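Our example pasted here:


***
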Amino acid sequence: MERDLSTSAIDHEAQSAVSWPAILAGAVAALAISFVLMGLAAGFGLKLASPWPGARPALAGFTPILGAWMIAVQVLSSALGGYLAGRLRTKWLNVHTHEVHFRDTAHGLLVWAASTVAGAVLVATLLVPPAEVVTVAAGVDSATLQLAAERQANIAAQFSLFMAVGLLLGAFVASVAAAIGGLRRDEMHATFWDQHGRVERPVRP
């Protein structure tokens, strides 16, 4: 019995603690649901940038309501991606419960990181328009230009603040959701083997 347990432990320790297929699946799902939610926001008039390729971002139209929606999108998409990664990951054997919890949480964080990097690349390559030459009318004075520049700076600061809050909340939610998904996976695994054991066990009169 000890020999079988030792052999199983050795075989398990030879495997990687990171399940990249589960992480990539969660990241793809998170990106997909974020595109859907941003498209839904555009349908209701909350349009910062369409999620479809070739669209032009409109930072000038940013509002706190849109910022709150951006946070909600990041939280919901991160929760879905993290939970999927936790449920889809293969159950580890001969690993302490605390280590399992840490690894599930780390998988959720990696889902958030992968989806964030992929989303940033998509925005940089598909959604950012080429540089345009801005012409200023001769009747526009320096004070008006200064006010316009200050307004753009304030909008950019608000956008950065909402984006940072959304990213931090997304990372936290993805980690928690992955841990919850891992707990649910282990519960279902234990329930299955309990039922399987009861079926296999002979019934004595």
Q: What stands out?
A: The chain is about 75% helix and 0% strand. Residues 1-6, 50-56, 130-134, 199-205 have pLDDT under 50 and may be disordered. The longest helix spans residues 142-200. The chain has one domain: 17-129+158-200.
